[in-house]
Amino acid sequence: QVQLLESGGGLVQAGGSLRLSCAASGRTFSNYAMGWFRQAPGKEREFVAAISRSSDRTYYTDSVKGRFTISRDSAKNTVYLQMNSLKPEDTAVYYCAARFEFNPMNYYIRQERYDSWGQGTQVTVSS
């Protein structure tokens, strides 16, 4: 399995921005479809964004469309989540996930489809 390490979380005021990074190691990063999920206190983990191996296809949950952007850099073995116009309801622990995938165009929104997970990074948005 690929190992994943998130970074970039922190405390930000509402309306601010953060960029999360997820560095992959141990396997060929370009063979993996990637996703971001989050878990707020007292809630179940939920899907945020996904990107295919090829980067040609991305998908977002409705609540972050137009504010968040997922991208990947295969040269750096890293997937990013740029988060703009942050809201207090975006407060959560953010996790990246990876799925070994043959089809370069596939992406996944269900967490059970992912093989590997990072430890998470805390994002706190103050009002």
* Content of β-strand: over 45%
Mean pLDDT: 97
Helix-strand string = EEEEEEEEEEE
Unreliable stretches: none
What is the count of DSSP helices, taking H or I runs of 4+ residues? 0
| Content-based structural category | mainly beta
Largest sheet properties: 7 strands, mixed
| Morphology call | globular
In whole angstroms, the N-to-C terminal distance is: 39 Å
Please tell me how large the radius of gyration is.
Answer: 13 Å
Number of DSSP strand runs: 11
Residue share in helices?
A: under 10%
Summarize the structure in words.
The protein is an all-beta fold. It is built from no helices and eleven strands. The strands form two sheets. Strands 2, 4, 5, 6, 9, 10 and 11 form a seven-stranded mixed sheet that branches. The model has no long low-confidence stretch (mean pLDDT 97).
Topology overview:
Layout lengths: L2 E5 L2 E4 L4 E8 L6 E8 L6 E6 L6 E3 L7 E6 L4 E6 L8 E9 L15 E2 L3 E6 L1
Parallel strand pairs: 2-11
Antiparallel strand pairs: 1-3, 3-8, 4-5, 4-9, 5-6, 7-8, 9-10, 9-11
Based on the model shown, name its key terms.
single chain; 127 residues; mainly beta; 4-stranded antiparallel beta sheet; globular
Give a summary of the structure in a few sentences.
By secondary structure, the chain is mostly beta strands.
